[in-house]
Fold this sequence. Notes:
Number of helices: 1
Helix content: 10-25%
Shape: globular
Strand content: 25-35%
Distance between the termini: 70 Å
Strand order of the largest sheet: 2-3-4-8-7-5
Amino acid sequence: MTFAPPALAGKAKDWDQYGQEASIAFPNHGGIRNFEANEERGLWIEDRQRRWYYAKFIGNCRGIDYANGIAFDTRGSSSFDRFGAIAVDGDYCPIESLVTAEKPLSRKERLKLRREVRLEAQKAVAPSD
């Protein structure tokens, strides 16, 4: 068993480029550390090295936004990639792509930005007196 030095233990690793097709090794054996839903459209996934990926679904994935747990279907492979799928609450959500990504904003920050954009859109559409 090896231990990381304390200074490096919590530091995230960065990608050289974002948006590149990728795969996550051994997702069923500790390869996936965390996940964050992007409504029903996709999923940010953090690997054990604290690198982030974005999985875009083919269509919407109902219930993913509020799921406490999900299953990663690798289709018999030892890695999770664009040929895999997510299972949540009995639904099966195939993946269109899995790419390298930046760490997502927190859910609270994303909802705040979404509200601001909607307010600006309403101002632009509403007639002014």
